[in-house]
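Design job #97: recover the sequence.
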């Protein structure tokens, strides 16, 4: 559906929030959405999880919401918070098979404009009563290159986005006495154009107890639901993990105002899963089949992620490119779905057992990087390139590895072979201005990869920035592997002997990227739980 802005609209910045999620809703919105049929509250659908905005592209965004019963999604779109001259879209049905989830793609929106959305669910019973509305707002992402009329823009718009990973892990869930998942409010207050969730969107393998003893004997008190009280095994338990996170007011408010780009990692299924994962000795699981758990975890992730399905060729594909005007292309990777088994990771030649991105994804990434005309190419990786991430030992006592590095500091071997191929391709094709963003290791850091100090040196230097956790235990720091020459520019992690620190310790981190529309300069800030910058690095763009 095409939308044109109302020249008389003058949107303000007053927050428009959701009534159905326990947040404030302006009286005008409630009045305009009075149900057409008088019905008791028990007869009306409820959108208890609010709404999410996702996969922002030039002139479009996905709108996600969930009802509590069979219903039909109705989406109103306007250019002011009073929904003057709103356009209504009759969206899809929300039915049992999809956990009553519905999503609607909004397209042909005027770039750079602030847009207000309102989602209502219409019941499918005889009364066909309406839910209370949930509302949100966002700024439409810019198109690439010339505008839709072929006119060249005098300059690109500034870009700001935030990133991080690791939500509700290690038993640190939603603590109302702490203020809930406060980091989501800190990120919202930065007013980003979008948010990149770098994986571990849930912790399906981490039970959440009603109370946990934190540092110095302090008690951490969690909200608890049946689905999070044990490891997830059924489809409903996996979905329940996402519903649990959406109990948090900070997250729901954030979701309604900041479009998101999701990727995933291991905890959406179970810790460190690959083809070598064996749950036979894990008494917590009655379902021992990792492929079956993967199928259920994948379905739940794709249900709750506010992302566009790829297409019928690969309906569960996660990797994709998201463009944000002429300044930025984000290459969202999937380092989980196509990997070989976790092993000693020391193979001399590439093969199925060294796959990490997998051949098809690796070739796609190389092709799209070479085609990109964006000033900056952000490679969104759910795992770091040069950090040791161990996965125990095999039957022979050899160390196994969960990520790319293999701990030998020597020439590229095992999964490092794919990364070496990629980095050399970037150098030889003169793909400029690549920056890697990641999470996974539960602390924040900045790494400079220097070919002059690397065992494998056929690449141009680049930066990798690590941010997280968002609401999980804090660990680290991890050792650096010398194959690609990473140099530690900054780290903030627990002191020696400390691990799994709660959010009470304040060591929860997110990253922020700002790109100046005039100079093209990219600035990375690593920020703490309160949103305070604890490290900053400015990078100037290089010509192609």
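Job complete. Output follows.
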């Amino acid at each position: 559906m095409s939308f044109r802005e109302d020249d008389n609209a003058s949107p303000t910045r007053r927050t428009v929030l959701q009534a159905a999620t326990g947040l404030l809703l302006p009286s005008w919105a409630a009045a305009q959405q009075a149900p057409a049929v008088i019905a008791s509250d028990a007869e009306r659908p409820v959108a208890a999880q609010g709404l999410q905005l996702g996969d922002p592209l030039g002139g479009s965004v996905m709108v996600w919401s969930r009802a509590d019963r069979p219903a039909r999604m109705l989406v109103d779109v306007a250019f002011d918070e009073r929904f003057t001259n709103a356009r209504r879209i009759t969206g899809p049905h929300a039915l049992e098979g999809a956990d009553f989830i519905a999503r609607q793609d909004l397209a042909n929106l005027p770039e750079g404009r602030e847009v207000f959305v309102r989602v209502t669910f219409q019941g499918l019973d005889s009364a066909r009563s309406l839910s209370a509305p949930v509302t949100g707002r966002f700024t439409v992402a810019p198109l690439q290159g010339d505008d839709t009329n072929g006119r060249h823009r005098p300059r690109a718009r500034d870009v700001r986005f935030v990133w991080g990973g690791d939500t509700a892990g290690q038993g640190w869930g939603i603590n109302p006495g702490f203020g809930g998942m406060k980091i989501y409010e800190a990120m919202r207050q930065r007013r980003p154009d979008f948010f990149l969730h770098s994986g571990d969107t849930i912790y399906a393998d981490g039970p959440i107890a009603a109370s946990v003893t934190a540092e110095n004997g302090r008690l951490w008190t969690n909200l608890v639901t049946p689905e999070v009280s044990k490891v997830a095994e059924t489809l409903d338990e996996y979905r329940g993990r996402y519903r649990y996170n959406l109990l948090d007011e900070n997250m729901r408010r954030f979701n309604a105002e900041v479009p998101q780009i999701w990727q995933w990692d291991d905890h959406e299924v179970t810790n460190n899963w690959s083809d070598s994962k064996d749950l036979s000795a894990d008494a917590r699981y009655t379902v021992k089949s990792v492929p079956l758990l993967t199928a259920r975890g994948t379905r739940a992730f794709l249900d709750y992620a506010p992302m566009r399905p790829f297409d019928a060729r690969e309906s569960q594909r996660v990797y994709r490119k998201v463009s944000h005007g002429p300044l930025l292309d984000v290459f969202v990777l999937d380092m989980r779905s196509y990997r070989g088994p976790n092993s000693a990771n020391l193979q001399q030649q590439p093969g199925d057992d060294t796959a990490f991105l997998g051949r098809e994804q690796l070739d796609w990434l190389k092709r799209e990087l070479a085609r990109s005309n964006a000033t900056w190419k952000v490679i969104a990786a759910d795992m770091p390139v040069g950090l040791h991430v161990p996965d125990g030992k095999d039957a022979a006592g050899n160390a196994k590895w969960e990520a790319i590095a293999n701990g030998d500091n020597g020439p590229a071997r095992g999964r490092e072979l794919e990364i070496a191929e990629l980095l050399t391709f970037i150098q030889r094709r003169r793909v400029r201005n690549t920056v890697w963003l990641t999470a996974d290791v539960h602390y924040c850091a900045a790494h400079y990869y220097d070919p002059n100090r690397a065992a494998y040196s056929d690449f141009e230097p680049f930066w990798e920035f690590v941010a997280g956790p968002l609401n999980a235990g804090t660990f680290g720091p991890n050792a650096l592997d010398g194959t690609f020459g990473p140099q530690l520019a900054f780290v903030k992690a627990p002191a020696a002997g400390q691990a799994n620190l709660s959010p009470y310790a304040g060591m929860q981190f997110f990253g922020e990227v700002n790109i100046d529309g005039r100079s093209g300069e990219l600035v990375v800030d690593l920020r703490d739980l309160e949103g305070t910058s604890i490290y900053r690095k400015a990078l100037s763009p290089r010509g192609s």
